[in-house]
What does this fold into?
Amino acid sequence: MSTEATAELHRRLHLMVITDRGLAGRRDWLTVVDAALSAGATAVQLRDKEATSGELLAMAESLRPVADRHAALFLVNDRFDVALACGAHGVHLGDDDLPVAEVRRVVPRDFIIGRSADTEAAARAAEAAGADYLGVGSVFGTRTKKEVIGEVIGTDRLRRVASSVSIPIVGIGGVTEENAAEVARAGAAGIAVVSAIMSAPDPSAATRTLLRERSRGEAMAK
It folds into this structure.
């Protein structure tokens, strides 16, 4: 990825909304995402561990025009095949997914690959394999991913991971309006949130506050 493309990706990762239909409650999850994107969220990642392949594709196809309307980065969690089928910009891969290098080998050149990493060694390996950005966490702890409940890396390690690679990183896990500035101050290009927006009574207001706090943290880091 060129320097210009990396800089653009950095901008598009400022605030990533990760979907969770359950947290949306009685509201339509797409309506919640649309409100967040309208308020300035720059990226959306479709994540639904319970959906079948067909259900996930249908969700992706309904989400793509919403993302396109707001010129938002659109990623699919885990499933690069679904991402390709629906025309998403890329995929986010975790520890149990296909290796970055194998996915990079078969996807278009401009297809964005994100990778989860929580150590400097894992971050450097993912970058070397062809990842375009890293999702680093859980920074403060999370209740939305059963496999990492109780794991907390903190902002000190987040800072070390950010310093170990040249690609953008996104802080994830327990990020809220109260601590978003700390994530940006640690060197993260952006923040990724689930419940902070998907369960917020006012997703638009929550989005604006998160963006303001991210910007404040970025300014503090300079």
Notes: The chain has a mean pLDDT of 95. The two ends are 25 Å apart (CA to CA).
